[in-house]
Design a protein that fits this description.
The protein is α+β, with helices and mostly antiparallel strands. The protein contains five helices and 20 strands. The chain folds into four domains: 100 residues, conserved putative lor/sdh protein from methanococcus maripaludis s2 fold; 107 residues, Efflux pump adaptor protein, beta barrel domain (Elongation Factor Tu (Ef-tu), domain 3); 50 residues, OB fold (Dihydrolipoamide Acetyltransferase, E2P) (Beta Barrel), CATH 2.40.50.100; 76 residues, Helix Hairpins, CATH 1.10.287.470. Strand 14 and strand 15 form a beta hairpin. The relative contact order is 0.20.
Length: 378
């Protein structure tokens, strides 16, 4: 009896195990995943490029005559207009030279008049055969010499007048005065190495930045040509060196048609208005360049997975998963991908948790935005 009892207990335990295992095999689980229908939307992505900020023109001001500065008419940082006098160089010697040149012109004019009278007189005498042709020609030569001397004197007068005008150093353009290293009493000349000052036109700032070859090609292909890209590109923003955004937007004004052999980049020039003189010539910043994509398929990054450097999603067809390779725009906003191939509007894909899915799985769909990958028992 004791041996029979032990055998019965073993048999009963095995029966319970088999029953439990059989029950587990009959109990199936189906994964539940959020599913979305693919649709199109507009997106604007941003790319940042290091930039150099320069005034529309920075003009170094040099004197055109030598002398000592007698007056400085402006201060550093002052706004000036085109033609405004900035410096005055000692005018005394140049005024004297101008007066001498005027007197020389008067003297030459008198000499021409005298030579003309002599020639006219000799011409009448020659016509009456009183003087020879030689004497008439000599008289004519004297007239020509006097006329040449007058022309020379007039040229010297123009030069003296110019030199006198150069003693007033004027601004060649509207702008802002830079550093003034020379003061009253300083001796200056046209051959000096350092300019008297500079005038910077900062009303509009030129912002230079470089774009790599692929980005430039994408830009051209997006708009069709360089000219069309310049005309149709949206406004761009500027981040200053301290990390703040400049309050006004700018536009790309030119795109170089040459790719640098050393850097492999294309240079672009943008123009930003600078009415409050916030932007300083010679400073640095970053251009925030928008890339506008219209009517594109956009999906969450959580809906994708990578395999051997290729990107895939799972389509859901009649409750079953099917992997599909897709291509996307290289840049993204960190949350979504812009799809350029592999999906059509209306396709249903798993919205998140794609890395846990396998091809051929049967799933239960639920609306995206709820918690993913729970299990439903049947």
């Amino acid at each position: 009896m004791r041996r029979f009892g032990k055998s019965f207990q073993v048999l009963l335990a095995c029966s319970l195990v088999v029953t439990a295992c059989g029950g587990g095999a009959r109990q199936q689980t189906v994964a539940e995943y959020p599913v979305i229908a693919v649709s199109k939307a507009d997106r604007t992505l941003q790319t940042t490029y290091s930039a150099k900020i320069e005034g529309r023109q920075d003009i170094a001001i040099y004197p055109q005559v030598s002398g000592t500065i007698t007056d400085v008419m402006v201060t550093e940082g002052q706004k000036v207009r085109k033609g405004q006098v900035l410096f005055i160089i000692d005018q005394v010697p140049y005024k004297a030279a101008y007066e001498v040149a005027k007197a020389n012109v008067k003297s030459a004019e008198v000499a021409v008049e005298t030579a003309q009278l002599n020639y006219d007189s000799d011409k009448k005498l020659y016509d009456n055969k009183v003087v020879s042709a030689y004497e008439l020609q000599t008289s004519l030569n004297s007239l020509h010499t006097a006329q040449a001397a007058l022309a020379q004197a007039e040229a010297q007068l123009v030069s003296a007048a110019n030199n006198l005008s150069y003693t007033e150093v004027s601004s060649p353009a509207d702008g802002v005065i830079g550093t003034i290293p020379y003061r009253v009493g300083a001796l200056v000349s046209a051959s000096m190495a350092q300019p008297l000052t500079s005038v910077s036109d900062n009303s509009v700032m030129y912002v230079y930045f470089s774009m790599n070859e692929n980005d430039a090609l994408n830009l051209i292909q997006q708009y069709g040509s360089l000219d069309k890209a310049i005309r149709n590109m949206p406004d761009i923003e500027l981040m200053l060196n301290n990390g703040t955004m400049y309050s006004l937007t700018g536009r790309v004004a030119s795109i170089s048609g040459i790719i640098s052999e050393t850097t492999g980049t294309v240079q672009l020039r943008a123009e930003f208005p600078n009415p409050d003189r916030v932007l300083l010539s010679g400073s640095n910043g970053s251009v925030v360049f928008p890339d506008v994509y219209k009517d594109m398929i956009v999906i969450p990054q959580e809906a994708t997975f990578e395999l051997q450097d290729q990107m895939f999603v799972y389509k859901v067809i009649e409750g079953t998963t099917h992997s599909a390779r897709i291509t996307v725009v290289p840049k993204n906003n960190g949350r979504e991908y812009i799809v350029t191939g592999g999906l059509e509007v209306g396709d249903r894909i798993i919205a998140s948790g794609a890395g846990l899915v396998r091809p051929g799985m049967t799933i239960v769909e639920k609306a995206a935005g709820t918690e993913a990958a729970s299990e439903v028992k049947e």
